[in-house]
Amino acid sequence: MKSAGSATVVATAASSVSGCLGGNGSGGGTLRYGRSAHSKTLDPQDTTSGEVSKVTNQIYDGLIDFQPGEAAITESLAVDWSMEGTDVTLELREDAQFDDGTDFTADDFIATYRRFVDEEYEYHVGDLSSYGPFTLGNWIDSVEADGDYMLNITLTDPYAPFLRNLAMFAAVVLPQDAIEGDFDFATNANGTGPFQLDKLDNSNGKIKLTPNDNYWGDGPNVDQLLFLERGQNSTRTQALIEGELEIIDNLGPNNIGQVEDSDAAEVQSGEGINIGYMSFNQSRVEAFRDSRVRRAISYAIDTESIVSEVYSGIAKQADQPCPPALFGHNDDLSPYPHDTEKAQSLLEDAGYGDGFSFDLTTFQNARGYNPAPMSTAESIRTNLREIGIEVEIDDRQFSDYLTYTSEGKHDASLAGWYTDNADPDNFYYVLLHPQVESPEGQDWVDWDTEGYNTSNRTAWANQEFMDLIEDAQQASDKDKRAELYHEAAQLAYDEAPWVYIDYADEIRGVRNTVNNYEVSAIGGPHLHLVDVE
Q1: What is the reported pTM?
Q2: Residue 40 CB: number of other CB atoms within 10 A?
Q3: What is the DSSP string of 97-160?
Q4: What family does this belong to (predicted)?
Q5: 358-386: string of b/e by CB count within 10 Å (b at 16+)?
Q6: Residue 27 pLDDT level (bands cut at 50, 70, 90)
Q7: I want to staple 146 with a disulfide (CB 3.0 to 4.6 A). Which of 8, 129, 150, 480 is the partner?
Q8: Beta bridge partners of residue 432, listed in sequence order
Q9: What is the mean pLDDT of residues 1-30?
Q10: Which residues contact 378 (CB under 8 A, 6 or more apart)?
């Protein structure tokens, strides 16, 4: 199978992890997954939250999936595919059913696609999530079914990451009957995946899933799967050690030793494909529109201390949007050094020598790319006070934080991103391309611009950067794409639309009673493969 960056891509069914055996798993017991924040919606098209995808990935399948613990794509509801230029063909499996017993067909994907992005479709949900355009909408010209189990997709232009986009959580397939019926995807679910919804308990931060008896693949191997909210790192860690949880994520640096010293659990880790950063909302704060101010702040914030002392070494300093695990990372760049004198000089050159003030919005709950958000915010406030900039910390629960920043109400925000498709485009285009025209004579846009990509929390709209990213999307040669991304990385470093903070390892706490769990930096978690002794 050639890489997704090649002009022609062909996959075969032989690469499947789950196989085509069908049937249900054996075993039993309960798998309890502890996390820092609850997800109050089950609609994969109405969220940008990784907490939602952890749950919906257990219930729904995409046409394509990621192999557990790897970035390679593999079959799911599609068993074979080809992509040549703008023509994509997918052969679909004929043995998949939704948990209500309805057969999966090509029409389900078409309805899913139209619900997400087609404004002329009666059941279009509107702009619920910024994922719609960059996952499918910006790239697809038409989708047609050739019988029940063949899809022919025509792209608007060649787009190298397209097959990987089909494996993103936002591209999972919903049933046409439910889309065109009176079904509430926010509070209910009906998928072809290994688990089905039993109970959504928002008041207690709990979601209970049970096996989908109609699942086409292997597993699941437990009788029930519980997602449980334990907001504090210490609480989650203690619950793991005491046997109240089997797996926990977002493990804090101060709690790793507790797990390692425990006879009942262990720490499992892997290289992450993520970034933690601070965004400058140029639409809201005039000072942030000057790159000298942004670079001054980048010099003033001691990211080395944050990574080594606050994060205790479970992350490395960042220096560009694309993490080191991907081919778009420019190895010639180095993190901004902590240089207060340089920062002060840049502020004076920009006319802000006397300083200014802004609010820094952050989430309260730990995230993998930022395991200590409040300590990070406090470090930033202390660093910036040294150059006359006063910071007011605005801390919010994660769901409130997401809504607030997606509406552009923040001055600056601590933010982060886990990859959706293990392609550089998922960082450069999704997070820093406005997906609207750059206004003449400026490199930022107003947040209220129609069609603006709100995942770009900076409102940055640098035309040179945008051109590089668009060229990289259409390049068929991986080396050429890498060259373009390296140029984009240099530009993003020089212009500093973010303060680049860290690339974090994926850290999990796992009970010794758990078998067949694998830390995945992308997709999953593949909990249908797990069994509990």
Answers
A1: 0.85
A2: 16
A3: B-TTSPBP-HHHHHHHHHHHH-TTSTT---S--THHIIIIITTEEEEEESSSSEEEEEESS--T
A4: Belongs to the bacterial solute-binding protein 5 family.
A5: bbbbbbbbbbbbbbbbbbbbbbbbebbee
A6: low
A7: 150
A8: none
A9: 42
A10: 393
Measured CA to CA, the distance from residue 125 to residue 80 in angstroms comes to 30
Min mean pLDDT across 4-8, 321-325, 378-382, 461-465 is at 4-8
Q: Which of 295, 282, 296 is nearest to 452 (CA)?
A: 282
Distance in angstroms (rounded) separating the CA atoms of residues 426 and 233: 29
- Alpha-carbon gap, residue 280 to 384, rounded angstroms: 14
Please, what's the b/e burial string for 500-519 (b: 16 or more CB within 10 A of its CB; e: otherwise)?
bbbbbbbbbbbbeebeebbb
Give the Cα separation of 131 and 158 in Å (integer): 19
Residue with tokens 């694309």, as numbered in its chain: 322
**Residue 483, C-beta contacts closer than 8 angstroms, at least 6 positions apart:** none
Q: How far is 340 from 348, CA to CA, in rounded Å? A: 12
- Set out the domains of the chain in order of their start, with CATH numbers: 36-193 (3.90.76.10), 274-505 (3.10.105.10)
| Distance separating alpha carbons of residues 497 and 298, to the nearest angstrom | 10
H helices of 433-495, in order, are 463-474, 478-495
Encoded tokens for 215: 């699942």
Q: Which H or E element spans position 278?
A: strand 274-280
Tens digits of residue pLDDT in 476-493? 899 999 999 999 999 999
Encode pLDDT of 419-478 as tens digits.
999 999 999 999 999 999 999 999 999 999 999 999 999 999 999 999 999 999 999 899
Query: Residue 146: pLDDT above 70?
Result: yes
Burial class (CB in 10 A: 0-12, 13-18, 19+), 120: exposed
Structure tokens at 163: 């097959």
Nearest residue to 222 (alpha-carbon basis) of 516, 512, 520, 22:
516
Instruction: Tell me the CA distances in angstroms from 143 to 61, 130, 151, 166, 499, one per residue in order.
Output: 19, 21, 7, 13, 40
Please report where in the chains the tokens 């999972």 appear, as a residue: 172
Helix axes 291-300, 340-349, angle to 10 degrees: 160
DSSP string, 216-242: SSS---SSEEEEEE--SHHHHHHHHHT
Beta bridge partners of 506: 270
Q: Specify burial of residue 453 (Cβ count, 10 A radius: 0-12, 13-18, 19+).
A: buried
